[in-house]
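HUMAN: Can I see a protein plus its fold?

ASSISTANT:
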Amino acid sequence: EIERYHMRCRYTLLSKGASIAVLTLAVTGSSAPAISQASTTARSISKAAQDCVGKEMWKKGYGLPSGGLGCAASVSNVLNKAGIAYVRTPVTLYMRRQILGGKLKVKEFVIKNGEKGAIDDTRLKEIARRGDVLVAFMNPLPGGNIGPKAHCGIIGAPGFVYTNDWNDGIWKHGDIHDYFDSYRYIRVLRFL
């Protein structure tokens, strides 16, 4: 049996000009949704990803001739907008390395590890959170792939991903299965 709780909050202002308030929490039984565990970084990434929908995010800074192979350039530019300036590459494999080796703490999770077919929705729901970076390859890591045998995006609403659409080079919020099911090695990178 799972118990769910609802938190009621009451703020008490100590004085008219005070910048400190007392927060009183009362926990009561309820079916209210769980409080988000997202980090400040994840929230910044999610907001930047949403704000960029409809734009050609691959165009800035990488000299790419078209958006057909612009996923990593797009994700890099979205991460830059979210304040993560050290991720700067148009190659998914190198972007993964920059994220894992960067100055911010990151954890990597496996979504698919060689399996053919669709992404397991139950596994995705258990692991992925808004603002996580998704990287996908046809070949196993650490080798992975570059070019059309790799793809990346940012986790959005459940079952959805922000990503560069290789058909038109537009940053979109679309069904994760449409963009990632064909890849056999998929990882989620979470900024902690």
User: Anything to note?
Assistant: Helices lie at 40-51, 71-81, 92-101, 121-127, 176-180. DSSP finds five helices and eight strands in the chain. The longest helix spans residues 40-51. Residues 153 and 163 are 4 Å apart (CA to CA).
